[in-house]
Amino acid sequence: MKKIAAVALVVVIAIVWLLNTSLLAPPPSGNAKILAHRGIHQVFHSEGLDNDTCTAERIETPRHSYLENTIASMRAAMESGADVVELDVHLTPDRQFAVFHDWTLDCRTDGSGVTQETPMSELKTLDIGYGYTADGGKSFPFRGQGAGQMPTLTEVFKALPEGRFLINFKSERREEGATLAVLLRFHPEWRKQVFGVYGGTAPTQETLRLVPGLRGYDRQSTIACLGRYAAYGWTGIVPDACRDTLIIVPGNYARFLWGWPDRFAARMQAAGSEIILLGPYSGGDFTSGIDSTDDLAFVPEGFSGYVWTNKAETIAPLLGKRPGAATDQANRQ
Q: Taking CA 43 as the corner, what is the angle to CA 39 and CA 49, rounded to the nearest 5 degrees?
């Protein structure tokens, strides 16, 4: 009986291996694509961050003049090689989407109060570079440079008609999703610019309900997809929660996914989903990026999904120099 059990175990292991090894699966065609988080922006130290941390007060020594979520920073990201730019929105009392990260204005700007409670007409008067400092408040290198630079989502669509954007809802207001759906209904030419939506569950799910074919995710849908796939993905069955969506994969957990990288990618591609590869996850939110040469080790050779980065100006050229990238690019032309 012990021999039979041992043989049975070996057979099961062999079947699981055959179903999930990438050695027997060709890599998906195409190059890795860049998803630029907040455009090109001032990066900051992430140690000890919490929800109340003012990140503008802990930026690294500036290497460029771009401020996050501005049209200039998005254009620069696209010129650096970004295929998609992530941006953050708040629906204001005058029914416009302000493109700005923070829930409140006090950290980055010379204003105060809750972003979504402030009319866009007032937000347009603020200096969004006011609060940035890299030396503990001894100097503020961007004061005066961000005056009037907070855009509306409409302005972004008009200024960057060739851009594609991942829209982050910062609230849990369902009306934000409905308002975005109405905006796209009245301006169908902008629909192709929306790569996807994510963030608050209520607005994200409302947008996905009202805009056919749009992809998106929230924390719950991500956990449902990856959790169910971990449970029975070894069979090759893709859970419904992983179909026709955006699947975010933390780089340090990717190797635990059944079939990673090539067979997993093929399954998700067949299910109508796109993969977004993040940097290492360590218990915070899902915005850690592939931001250094060390982080590039998380990106498999032949990966053709989206690479989330806070440093598009650095990572896009490095990905372009990886072995095989030139061949993949030539095959796409």
A: 120
pLDDT tens sequence across 52-69 = 889 999 999 999 999 999
CB distance 171 to 200 below 8 Å:
yes
Identify the burial level of 22 via C-beta atoms within 10 angstroms of its C-beta, where 0-12 means exposed, 13-18 middle and 19 or more buried: middle
pLDDT per residue as tens digits for the range 111-149 = 999 999 999 999 999 999 999 999 999 999 999 999 999
What is the Cα–Cα distance from 303 to 29, expressed in whole angstroms?
8
For 226, the token pair is 């990856």
For the stretch 15-42, pLDDT in tens is 777 788 887 777 777 889 999 999 999 9
Asked if 118 contacts 92 with a C-beta cutoff of 8 angstroms, the reply is yes
C-beta separation of 195 from 84 below 8 A: yes
**DSSP 3-state of 165:** strand
CA–CA gap between residue 136 and residue 140 (Å, rounded): 9
Cα 92 from Cα 95, distance rounded (Å): 5
pLDDT of residue 227: 96
pLDDT of 322 > 80? The answer is no
The answer to whether the CB of 98 falls within 8 A of the CB of 150 is: yes
| Dihedral over alpha carbons 272, 274, 280, 281 (to 10 degrees) | -60
Say if residue 325's pLDDT is above 70. Answer: no
Burial label, 53 (beta-carbon count in 10 A; 0-12, 13-18, 19+): middle
Interior angle at CA 274, CA 270 and CA 277, nearest 5: 130
Amino acid at 207: T
Residue 92 · residue 86 · CB < 8 Å: no
Q: What tens digit of pLDDT does each residue of 220-229 get?
A: 999 999 999 9
pLDDT at site 46: 78
Residues 147 and 181: their CA atoms lie apart, in Å, by: 30
As annotated, the residues of the chain forming the CATH 3.20.20.190 domain(s) are 48-71+89-193+200-210
Stretch 69-90: mean pLDDT, rounded? 97
Considering the domain delimited by 48-71+89-193+200-210, tell me its CATH architecture: Alpha-Beta Barrel (3.20)
